[in-house]
Design brief:
mainly alpha; elongated
């Protein structure tokens, strides 16, 4: 079942660790309290490590698994497997983030557009985890499409 998937699992673990560290830095910088106005800007910076992890994973898959140039479908499959593992590990990561690192985070009015059916602005851990799971897949699909296209078009001089 996991044959050939160790590269994706490794990078999903790296992503999970970086995600926890990033969230901890947000908390330590006060972005979950008095400096909350800067939270979305700081979160946008997390796209850079995310793109890097996806790129390194597809590059490593091309180099160490396929040992040749990678096709679009191979890159897309690899990126989607990575996305799947990140989303699954993300359930545990989000539980850690919302229960231990910043338990009051979901009770803060981070985004006024978010509200429950009853009109309250507080989110439950389950709602926060569901939103994160969905967001992970959306971002993963977009980055995978871009990087799979890029890696399939750029031929390796060493490998090819």
């Amino acid at each position: 079942m996991f044959k050939g998937k160790s590269i994706e699992i490794k990078w999903a673990v790296v992503f999970s660790i970086i995600n926890i560290l990033w969230f901890t830095i947000e908390k330590l910088m006060g972005l979950h309290a008095e400096k909350m106005a800067y939270l979305n800007t700081f979160r946008m910076l997390f796209l850079f490590p995310t793109i890097g992890i996806y790129a390194f994973e597809i590059w490593e898959k091309r180099r160490n698994f396929y040992k040749t140039n990678i096709t679009f479908l191979q890159g897309f499959k690899s990126g989607m497997i990575l996305t799947f593992y990140i989303a699954i590990f993300g359930l545990v990561v989000n539980f850690i983030k919302f229960k231990w690192i910043s338990p009051s985070f979901l009770n803060l009015p981070v985004n006024p557009m978010l509200s429950n059916i009853d009109g309250s602005k507080e989110l439950t851990v389950a709602q926060g985890m569901a939103m994160s799971f969905t967001g992970t897949f959306l971002v993963g699909v977009v980055f995978t499409l871009i990087l799979a296209t890029t890696f399939s078009l750029v031929k390796s001089k060493k490998l090819g």
